[in-house]
Write a sequence for this structure.
């Protein structure tokens, strides 16, 4: 095994679960989250030797892919009270601890939009987590 492969395996092993949670909190679906993370890691592997900040690339790619996945036609059969873009902003800002400018760069929209999305703050984030917890509990008991 080459140094590149070893380095990538260590990174993927250490970050897989946190990237999966990030994707899930962004899109709200565990299957989509897993697909997004695996696709992101596959792309990252191909570019591994050309990048300096693997962490930033992985985080940005996972969030953007999770948001894009929610734009597919089959996503709309599930209704959510919290827009995906707002959910992504909340996750990056409050859970990942990124600043408003860093969140804006990752999501690709103005800082004012991030501020607007995060202004409801922890209350909106708590509502999102409560919705997901209720969904998961309903699925387990059904």
């Amino acid at each position: 095994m080459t140094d590149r492969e070893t380095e990538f395996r260590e990174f993927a092993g250490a970050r897989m679960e946190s990237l999966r949670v990030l994707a899930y909190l962004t899109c709200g679906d565990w299957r989509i989250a897993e697909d997004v993370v695996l696709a992101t890691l596959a792309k990252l592997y191909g570019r591994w030797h050309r990048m300096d900040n693997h962490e930033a690339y992985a985080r940005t790619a996972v969030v953007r892919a999770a948001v894009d996945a929610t734009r597919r036609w089959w996503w709309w059969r599930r209704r959510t009270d919290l827009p995906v873009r707002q959910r992504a902003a909340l996750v990056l800002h409050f859970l990942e601890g990124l600043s408003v400018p860093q969140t804006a760069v990752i999501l690709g929209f103005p800082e004012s939009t991030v501020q607007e999305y995060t202004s409801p703050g922890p209350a909106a984030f708590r509502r999102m987590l409560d919705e997901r917890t209720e969904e998961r509990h309903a699925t387990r008991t059904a």
